[in-house]
Known about the structure:
By secondary structure, the protein is an alpha/beta fold. The protein folds into 2 domains: 7-80 and 334-445, Alpha-Beta Complex (Aspartate Aminotransferase, domain 1); 84-331, 3-Layer(aba) Sandwich (Aspartate Aminotransferase, domain 2), CATH 3.40.640. The chain has helices spanning 9-16, 18-27, 38-41, 83-93, 104-117, 129-144, 181-184, 195-205, 228-238, 258-263, 289-292, 318-331, 335-358, 391-405, 424-439; strands spanning 7-8, 50-54, 57-60, 65-68, 122-126, 148-152, 187-190, 209-214, 242-246, 269-272, 283-287, 363-367, 370-374, 408-409, 416-417, 444-445.
Amino acid sequence: METKTKIDLVALYKGKTKRSWQLFQESLKYLPGGDSHPNSRFFSPYPIFANRGVEGRLYDVDGNEYVDYWIGHGALFMGHCNPIVVEAVKKQLDTGIQLGTYSETEVELAKQALKMIKVFDKIRFCSTGTEATLSACRLARAYTGRKKIGKFERHYHGWHDAVLKGLSPPYEKAGSSGLVEDVVGNTIVLPWNDLDGCRKIIDEHKDELAAVILEPSPAVAVSPAEGFLQGLRELTTERNIVLIFDEVVTGFRYAPGGAQEYFGVTGDLATYAKVLGGGLPVGAVAGKDEIMGLMNDPTKPDQKDKSSFHAGTYSGNPISMTAGLAALRALEDGNLYRKANSYGQRLRDGMQEIINETGVEACVVGECSASSMLFMKNPPRKMSDVGAGTEAHKKLLLFRFALVTKGIYSRFSSRFYNSTAHSDADLSKTLGAIRETLRSLDSYEMRFDQAIPPAH
């Protein structure tokens, strides 16, 4: 019987990315892990180094072109170098980069964001999604007088102490060394899509639980089961627990009002970043006056001892505010959402058609402009279904790595984020690469031993 020759993907990749390999070795001399966000940007045997992005395409230092579905961590909903955003930022650069005062643009972006979100009264800007969720958790504690925070398995809310737990099994373990047990011990991990399980745990801690925070559509591609978000809303309302929707990923991506509009469920607070900044650094927490009124406010000196403190040198900086305002104004009428969501649906339909053609055991999940292909028969309901180490996860890594060698770039977890700038040509190239990859999946070989240079 003839043995098929295996395709060595690592050798193929290294042949295409020699300059990235050299830069990675150099970067390790000066940066832990080689960059400033290795958890999301690194993949074995080494990551690409990009130097240019145009619309839905990314270019690396070796001159390779990729259809980009990582799209700046999902922040570039309108694509790379969107001319509306670029022109607005260029004008702002001529008048001030960091003024350190109140600004009209900050007010205008606040008005624009709240107009689109619809369900909230106030918004406070910061510089990152991590700062936003930190502020939301602190606000919830100030509002309720309680200290514990509930979060879900594998949901990511940034890297501050209160939420850096439950990222991987065992879920009760802290997600980093150097965390203070007094803080981590006040974080309760909840089971996703298990309303009865949530009710039991929440009731055990209801007198101490200030908030429950969640990604309404988790980036690990386990969508909420029908009725789960509504049930969680009822649970928290009945127990006077603040419900925080972390919309750092979904905010202004799924709809003008984000996932809360899309799923028809509203939190007491919500956090934003990514799309809100038009591609520049930004974060925000928004909510009703009743809770947001506890944010530190210099016009209310009598409230000082009861307020929730927040500050930041670059909070509300004019460059990010300008980029965000230009982006949200372009998105407001809904036309670009229809375009991006249509592309996302065509991508999912095309993936499913290829699965049917090839007979590979896989499923397609996602909504709006966020899509995933997972190597399991049915869409997952539990976080453990897509955990690292499973056969499904190993196949996913092989699949994604093969796509990179074919010019399709996405984060090495389980999501394709498309933008309003992705074209029919991008879709055609993507589906062609997926079809070729699935047909040849058993022929690929990936060996990472000795592929990563030694630490310097």
